[in-house]
Every structure is written in structure tokens, then in C-alpha cells.
Specification:
five-stranded mixed β-sheet; 2 domains; Aspartate Aminotransferase, domain 2; 396 residues; alpha/beta; seven-stranded mixed β-sheet; single chain; globular; Aspartate Aminotransferase, domain 1
Length: 396
């Protein structure tokens, strides 16, 4: 089919030409004397994306899952207890990884469509008088259900109770898109990947680690090799890596970080919120329901749309792809067949969102979902026009 394919899954995301161009370079010597002149400023600027001055950035070849594994392996010991909650496929997978490492996981089961249960976290941490819980896990943005949780709220609980547990955050589909404050929120390890807000191909696990978490590594007894922070820190300090880095992807990361900083993080976050609001307005106009159960859970990077009873969401997804070259995200695990997901993160603007919504309407109409054609697109137009007017007034 002629024309561009529409990529609106919640990762990988659309890649800017500037990032593609930055990676279209000859392979280079990663031991060259001038390689640190490129690497060290990159580390410093990636820290700005995490909004940290004290954290240390690590960049591994891998994905967000590799980043999770590194967080666990570098800080914990066999039999350690961790507190987590399961409210979607990715929060579940993090728990599963911890269990495979032989950790004791207190996993709070939460209805899908909600997020981290602050009241239950407080109760469990308050009852932990011996401080057996060594780490608290928070999935900042649950990609499977389009739910964002309150990381700062978890930090407040830890501080109120003077609990020393480490705070780990999965920011794979939030960092570089949704406001994330490493230092202010007292996060000890934040994990993300290159293929979402950083607008790049899959292939980099990007982390920021606090001094407290680095110190925990001195007594941690889980096995680590490839992901050992000690080896990375020693080589990174000189501008090198303990093994051959994905230098081509690092060049892309340099361009991505430049784009984010040039736009300004507050503007990046505001843009994502504005575009997400347009998608949510369309969902309301279609008469459908957001999988996220209340506005304070709504994600600004992905919306999971519940289809009506008797409709298979996979039919919408297949029709969108086969008939209109539009990729939408599928439902996972408990919500398989019940939702389709619209990713609205990364390199995204108003007309791209309108493309996604128009293509979604075509697919929904073809599979027989009842709605007034154009109503969702119209609602998005009204939302974006109002948002644009407000921004112009503020600028004046």
C-alpha cells in the first residue's frame, strides 16, 4: 500500500529523521583516545532527562527487562524481601523476574485499570518493623492498561515511616515523556529503554542509579556479570565501557537527548498531556471506556480502549493493520481481546494523533462498532484547538 505506515503502538515509537541520520555513520573505534569526548557529555545530559544531579547513569546494550535485571542483581541478595504490586502485564513480569532470582516478593494484587495502591503499601511498610523489605517496586506507567502511578506518593510513605528500603521505578514508557523527578522523588534506581520516549530503535537499557543503591551493591550477593555496576562505573568514569558498546545507538541517543533538551522537558511533558487529552476526548465521543478507571490513573503516553461486549479487540487491530496500514497495540494477558491500545508518545504531534484516530475510526466502523463516524476526530479537533488557544494566550 502506498504512503507511510502508521505506527501507534506504545513502543517502539516513531523515529525522527534526525535520530536516524545520527546513526547513519561508519562504525568507530570505541577505544579511540577521543571517544570519551563524546561519551562523558552524553552521560551528563542523560542525567538531565532523569532530572538528577546526584544519580549515576548506566547505558547497557539491552532492553528495559535487562535494566530490571541489573537493578535486582546489583542491590539484593538471595531471600531478600521486596514489595511490589501487580496491575498489568509489565508489573507482573517484574515480579516474575524477582521470583526467578529467589527473592521473597510481597506482590499486592490490584484490579487492572488501577495503579500502585498507596494505602496497601503504607500498611505493609508500617507493619515491617524489622525492615525486612529491602526494595519497593513501582511501575510508573503500566503500558498494558494505560495507567500511571504516583511515585512521589510512595516516597512520601517511605519517608514518613523512616523505612530504609530502596525505591525502584520502571519508567520504560514514562521517562522522557511524562514528568519524572529522580532526585526530588528519592528514586534509587530508574529503568527505561531507548525505544519509547527516547524515539530510538530498541537496543539500549538506560538507567539512573542513586549513591544509596550503589552502596547496596557492596553487600549484595546475587550473581552479576554483564550487568555489574562496579565494572561499568570503573570504565565509564574514563569515558569507556567494559565491553564493546552499541556505539551506533549511542550516536542516536545523543541526537535524541539533544532534541528533548532543545524542546525543554516541561514542553515535552505538556505536549504529551495535550495529545493524550485529544485521544481521551475521542474515546469519550465514541462512547467507549478507558481501561484506566479514573482520571488520576490516566496515562499521557498510552490509552487502552475497552471495546463493547461481544466485540473482539483483535478484530479492530487486525483490520487497522491489514486494511489501513495502522499499527495499534493489542491487549495483553487479562485484557487480551478486550482492549486495543493507542500509543501517543515520543516523536508525536497533533496531525499524527489525528491520523491515528482517523485510522482507528475506519477500523472500528469496518468491524461493526457503533459510533457516529467522525465524532472522535471532531472531539480531538475541539480539544486540540482549545489547548492551542490556551497556549497562545499564555505565550502572549
Amino acid at each position: 500500500m502506498p504512503g507511510f505506515k502508521g505506527l501507534f503502538v506504545p513502543g517502539p515509537t516513531n523515529m525522527p529523521f534526525r535520530v536516524r541520520q545520527a546513526m547513519d555513520v561508519a562504525l568507530e573505534d570505541h577505544r579511540a583516545p577521543d571517544f570519551p569526548q563524546f561519551v562523558l557529555p552524553l552521560f551528563a545530559d542523560v542525567k538531565k532527562i532523569f532530572q538528577t544531579k546526584s544519580g549515576q547513569v548506566f547505558i547497557f546494550p539491552g532492553s528495559g527487562t535487562g535494566g530490571w535485571e541489573s537493578a535486582v542483581a546489583n542491590t539484593l541478595s538471595p531471600g531478600d524481601k521486596v514489595l511490589a504490586s501487580v496491575f498489568g502485564q509489565f508489573s507482573y513480569l517484574w515480579v516474575d523476574l524477582c521470583q526467578r532470582f529467589g527473592l521473597q516478593v510481597d506482590a499486592v494484587d490490584v484490579e487492572w485499570g488501577q495503579g500502585v495502591p498507596l494505602d496497601q503499601y503504607r500498611a505493609r511498610l508500617e507493619a515491617d518493623k524489622q525492615h525486612a523489605i529491602k526494595a519497593v517496586l513501582v511501575t510508573h506507567n503500566e503500558t498494558a492498561t494505560g495507567v500511571t502511578s504516583d511515585v512521589a506518593g510512595v516516597r512520601r510513605i517511605l519517608d514518613d515511616l523512616k523505612h530504609p528500603a530502596l525505591l525502584f521505578v520502571d519508567g520504560v514508557s514514562s521517562i522522557a515523556s511524562i514528568d519524572f523527578r529522580m532526585d526530588e522523588w528519592g528514586v534509587d534506581i530508574a529503568v527505561t529503554g531507548s525505544q519509547k520516549g527516547f524515539m530510538m530503535p530498541t537496543g539500549l537499557a538506560i538507567l539512573c542509579v542513586s549513591e544509596k543503591a550503589l552502596q547496596a551493591g557492596t553487600s549484595a550477593r546475587l550473581p552479576r556479570g554483564f550487568f555489574d555496576y562496579r565494572d561499568m562505573a570503573k570504565s565509564n568514569a574514563q569515558g569507556y565501557f567494559p565491553y564493546t558498546p552499541a556505539a551506533t545507538l549511542l550516536r542516536g541517543l545523543r541526537a535524541s537527548v539533544d532534541m528533548l533538551l532543545e524542546e525543554g522537558l516541561p514542553n515535552v511533558f505538556a505536549r504529551h498531556r495535550r495529545l493524550a487529552g485529544a485521544v481521551r476526548a475521542a474515546v469519550d465521543a465514541w462512547g467507549l471506556r478507558n481501561c484506566a478507571q479514573a482520571p488520576h490513573w490516566y496515562s499521557d503516553t498510552v490509552t487502552a480502549v475497552m471495546v463493547p461486549e461481544g466485540v473482539d479487540a483483535n478484530a479492530v487491530i487486525k483490520t487497522a493493520y491489514n486494511s489501513y496500514d495502522l499499527s495499534l497495540g493489542g491487549g495483553l494477558s487479562k485484557v487480551a481481546g478486550k482492549v486495543f491500545r493507542i500509543g501517543h508518545l515520543g516523536w508525536m504531534n497533533e496531525i499524527m494523533v489525528m491520523q491515528a484516530l482517523g485510522g482507528t475510526e475506519l477500523a472500528m466502523h469496518d468491524v461493526g462498532i457503533k459510533f457516529e463516524p467522525g465524532c472522535g476526530v471532531g472531539a480531538a479537533v475541539r480539544h486540540l484547538s482549545r489547548a492551542g488557544d490556551a497556549m497562545r494566550v499564555a505565550a502572549e
